[in-house]
């Protein structure tokens, strides 16, 4: 099945089973804004817990905060967002559709890459075990031709970004004959800068209102609290401040479901270090963060680092952790070495001294910062995309059945256990409720007595429930039940008294934490 079709099915699945709804749907929706539904919010909370505990609980020198969305407007002047938080925008005159010029060019480069990957995949299939990918990539004429085209675009693109040359960005689009996907024409406007921050007014106009911004990143809430946390928490460098919260960006092009939203959530860490130590910590956090992703058990080749072509105004090193979505490798997390830019700017604009006295060096300095910043929503999409599977099941009678199963990491699954009485009578529902009443303090449980057991299994597979338990008449006699495992569909008879331990071993987040570097 084509990857676009898989993605469409995934989006439909998210709605049908209560994971994600379009915001304001009964009013025809609000573009690039989404609501998390009854199961979506559970998965999202579990992702946040996995991140928060891995940062705050597992690191002695990391603490968390929850700062306000509204902040003093000068903060955004100091941070550079008022002047420089822009995207290059271009319109197609025929379709009247608006695009990010940089994304159009990146998509073109991704097309060349896909063409190369297809050649490699074809050759791999043909030559099997003996295939030498590195040699093929460096000698195959079709791969080399595409690489040459991609590199040429890349060189011009990086130069244009570095020089902030909007005319050159347009010229790259023209020279490479990039067409509007809607109208199919190459009738483009000039490229112009577009600030991504939303603003609103605080206070009533009569007593003087002021323009404030909805934060486009949570990071600034951490920087402006640096002194408060360092002093009240008696934190010693190196130390980190973590935060999870909403961020808002007036994205020019909102695409790919919850991948690019106008209201989204970030999980950010600012790690304060001695000047000169930042590259060591940058490498360390790259490794730590990649191991957090890989602990979830998805294939290693779905992840890669992608170093930035153009550094943000505050960074001296930056890389992204990219994940292979159905629509290609895309950024899930950014890791930046932010130097002392933000703290110094806030020191200058606020007039307050923001420094650290290092007792070991016996001197004061402005700390340097390494940041890790991941979008909760992108992580959610990544997990759903990787977990969604359509499987064929051979039945005993020779027929083939199909199931849709979400192979979610059990620790993140919204529901851990579904308890099902075989029939709705003879005391089985009551016994099932007893099991739930016992386990519900530790695990999210559901009760289901409707339809055949097969249909009930399918419903739970579709929402990713790792365990189902069925009670029959034997259960009333010997306190045993049949437990069914989601991924293998294997079933076994176990004692009700053992369910707690089985679930604990099967869905605990501890196992994920133990894998972390
Ligand atoms: N404080 C640094 C910062 O905000 P960023 O690369 O702009 O860096 C960090 O954003 C992460 O936030 C991204 O890797 C992505 O996961 C998420 N993110 C950014 N813009 C987003 C959007 N419009 N919708 C959903 N997630 C977004």
Explain how this protein is built:
The structure is a single chain. By secondary structure, this protein is of the alpha+beta class. The protein has three domains: 36-80 and 196-396, 2-Layer Sandwich (BirA Bifunctional Protein, domain 2), CATH 3.30.930.10; 86-191, 2-Layer Sandwich (Herpes Virus-1), CATH 3.30.40; 410-514, Rossmann fold, CATH 3.40.50.800. Helices cover 39% and strands 25% of the residues. A hairpin with a 5-residue loop joins strand 22 (480-485) and strand 23 (491-495). The longest helix is centred in the first third of the chain and has 27 residues, at 101-127. The chain starts with a helix and ends with a helix. The site of glycyl-adenosine-5'-phosphate has 19 residues, from strand 10, strand 13, strand 16 and helix 13.
């Amino acid at each position: 099945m084509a990857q676009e079709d898989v993605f469409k099915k995934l989006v439909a699945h998210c709605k049908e089973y209560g994971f994600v709804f379009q915001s304001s749907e009964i009013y025809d929706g609000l573009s690039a804004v989404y609501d998390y539904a009854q199961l979506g919010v559970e998965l999202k909370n579990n992702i946040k817990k996995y991140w928060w505990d891995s940062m705050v609980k597992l690191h002695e020198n990391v603490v968390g905060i929850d700062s306000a969305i509204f902040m003093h407007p000068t903060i955004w002047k100091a941070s550079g967002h008022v002047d420089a938080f822009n995207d290059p925008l271009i319109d197609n005159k025929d379709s009247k559709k608006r695009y990010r010029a940089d994304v159009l060019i990146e998509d073109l480069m991704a097309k060349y890459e896909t063409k190369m990957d297809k050649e490699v995949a074809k050759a791999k299939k043909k030559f099997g075990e003996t295939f030498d990918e590195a040699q093929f990539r460096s000698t195959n004429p079709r791969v080399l031709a595409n690489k040459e085209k991609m590199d040429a675009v890349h060189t011009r693109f990086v130069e244009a970004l570095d020089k902030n040359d909007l005319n050159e960005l347009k010229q790259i689009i023209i020279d490479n004959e990039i067409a509007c996907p809607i109208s199919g024409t190459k009738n483009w406007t000039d490229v112009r800068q577009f600030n991504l921050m939303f603003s609103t007014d605080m206070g009533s106009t009569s007593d003087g209102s002021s323009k404030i911004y909805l934060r486009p990143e949570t990071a600034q809430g951490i920087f402006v609290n640096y002194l408060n946390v360092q002093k009240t928490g008696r934190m010693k460098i190196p130390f980190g401040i973590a935060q999870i919260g909403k961020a808002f960006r007036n994205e020019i092009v909102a695409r790919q479901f919850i991948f690019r939203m106008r209201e989204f959530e970030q999980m950010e860490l600012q790690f304060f270090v001695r000047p000169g130590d930042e590259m060591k910590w940058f490498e360390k956090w790259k490794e730590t963060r990649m191991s957090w992703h890989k602990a979830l058990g998805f294939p290693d080749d779905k992840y890669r680092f992608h170093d930035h072509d153009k550094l943000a105004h505050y960074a001296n090193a930056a890389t992204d952790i990219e994940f292979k979505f159905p629509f290609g490798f895309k950024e899930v997390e950014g890791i930046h070495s932010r130097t002392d830019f933000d703290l110094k700017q806030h020191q200058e604009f606020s007039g307050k001294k923001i420094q650290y006295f290092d007792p070991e060096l016996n001197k004061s300095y402005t700390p340097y910062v390494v940041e890790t910043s991941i979008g909760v929503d992108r992580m959610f999409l990544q997990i759903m995309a990787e977990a969604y599977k359509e499987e064929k099941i051979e039945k005993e009678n020779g027929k083939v059945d199909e199931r849709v199963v979400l192979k979610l990491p059990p620790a993140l699954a919204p529901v851990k256990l579904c308890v099902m009485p075989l029939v709705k009578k003879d005391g089985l529902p009551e016994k099932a409720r007893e099991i739930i009443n016992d386990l519900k303090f530790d695990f999210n449980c559901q009760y289901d007595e409707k339809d055949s057991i097969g249909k009930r299994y399918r419903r739970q597979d579709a929402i990713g429930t790792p365990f189902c338990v069925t009670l029959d008449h034997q259960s009333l006699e010997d306190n045993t039940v049949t437990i069914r495992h989601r991924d293998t569909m294997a079933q076994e008879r176990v004692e009700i008294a053992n369910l707690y331990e089985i679930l604990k071993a099967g869905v605990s987040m501890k196992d994920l934490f133990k894998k972390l570097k």
